Amino acid sequence: MRAVDGTGRTGFRGRRAPPLREVGTDPDYRFTLANERTFLAWLRTALGLVAGGAALASLLPGFGPQPLRLGLAALLLALALLISVGSYRRWERAERALRLRKPLPSGILPRIVASGLAVAVLATLLLVLLDLRS
Amino acid sequence: MTDSPLLDATTAAERTSLAWQRTGLAMVVTGALLVHTQVGAGALRPLSGVVLVAAGVVAAALVAPLRYRTVLRRVDAQRSPLGGAAVVGACLVVCAATVTTAITLLVG
């Protein structure tokens, strides 16, 4: 079992990391605000994906083959869920690192979102091509 | 004057407030779309869209200006302007909207 080290990781027994305010010392307020704005930017990205998924699933009934269209909508909504959960995790871990004067954690969210969106773009291209042919 | 800490704080607080405003507007727009796409399919279905619109109005009209003042006050008092409650609230709203959208549009 790993001891709780304050970086947001929990040990194998699932002990929670201490609350943010009790960790380290207050960082430069500009870093805290920049971290909050980054969180909000991720949240807006998730909202955009929700809008795209909802539009695909129900505003464009005749657009391309239905399974592909609904599959793409499901992918966008799944990405939106990953981002909205991940945005908080990233905010929390970044703030923790700031308070502990540690380097910011990198995380895998950008990689997941970039690959997911690449698949979504290819699926959209396929959808448009199939829609043009029919 | 240019290196006055308060002058710096006002611009940083303003950017953060504007980010909340943009996020609120995005919630209103997305919520309106959800209401539109789920209309006419049972009484409870437009709920997630309505909640998202309401949350967006709160974020843009209440959280944004409140955050501006809180940040300036905290920075002035040499305290961290950590905005935990607003962050958790906004995250929960978007998570809930995403899940209900996926359920109503793809499963239901």
Question: What would you note in describing this structure?
Answer:
The complex is a heterodimer of chains A (134) and B (108). Chain A is mainly alpha-helical and 134 residues long. Chain A has one domain. In chain A, 66% of the residues lie in helices and 0% in strands. Chain A has three helices and no strands. The longest helix of chain A is centred in the middle third of the chain and has 34 residues. Chain A is elongated, with a radius of gyration of 19 Å. The N and C termini of chain A lie far apart (59 Å). With 108 residues, chain B is an all-alpha fold. Chain B has one domain. Helix content of chain B is 81%, strand content 0%. Chain B contains three helices and no strands. In chain B, helix 1 packs antiparallel against helix 2, helix 1 packs parallel to helix 3 and helix 2 runs antiparallel to helix 3. The longest helix of chain B is centred in the N-terminal third of the chain and has 34 residues. The radius of gyration of chain B is 17 Å and the shape is elongated. The mean pLDDT of chain B is 88. The chains are: A mainly alpha (134), B mainly alpha (108). The interface between A and B is large, with 40 and 41 residues.
